[in-house]
Amino acid sequence: MYKISKQFTFSASHTLDLLPEGHPCARLHGHNYVVTIHLRSEELNEFGFVMDYKELDFVKEFIDKTLDHRHLNDIIPNHPTAENIARYLFSIFFVRLPELYAVEVSETPKTSAIYEP
């Protein structure tokens, strides 16, 4: 099995309204997110790639247009935790990327959440 990944970044705000009053993440705040998409294939294409990274330009375009400098509560259809953002992005990108097996979302350099169906 061959595996590749590529990272994308965006900045956005959110509130986690389901948290108890007084929890700092219940207040409006923002992150510099890092999204990593993970692809895999049992075979390489004729160029020796799982996929040419250039073919992933649409991922950057989607993130820049839809998520960057936005309020995620207005976009993510459920509670915009890193876990739910990863699941949301997986559902969007899997349509065009059958090689996609996981999406990872990091809010800080020390934390990340991975959605892998």
Structural write-up:
There is one protein chain. With 117 residues, the chain is of the alpha+beta class. It has one domain: 6-pyruvoyl tetrahydropterin synthase/QueD (Tetrahydropterin Synthase, Chain A). The protein is built from two helices and five strands. It has helices spanning 57-66, 82-93; strands spanning 2-14, 29-41, 70-71, 100-108, 111-115. It has a five-stranded mixed beta sheet with strand order 3-1-2-4-5. The longest helix has 12 residues, at 82-93.
* Average pLDDT rating: 96
Tell the overall outline: elongated
Biggest sheet descriptor: 5 strands, mixed
Portion in helices: 10-25%
Strand content range = 35-45%
Task: Return the CATH architecture.
Answer: 2-Layer Sandwich
Radius of gyration, in Å, reads 15 Å
- Cross-sheet strand order for the largest sheet: 3-1-2-4-5
CATH-level-4 superfamily name: 6-pyruvoyl tetrahydropterin synthase/QueD
User: Structural class per helix/strand content?
Assistant: alpha+beta
The SSE order reads EEHEHEE
How many domains, in number, for the residues? 1
Report the CATH C-level class.
Answer: Alpha Beta
Low-confidence stretches: none
- Count of individual beta strands: 5
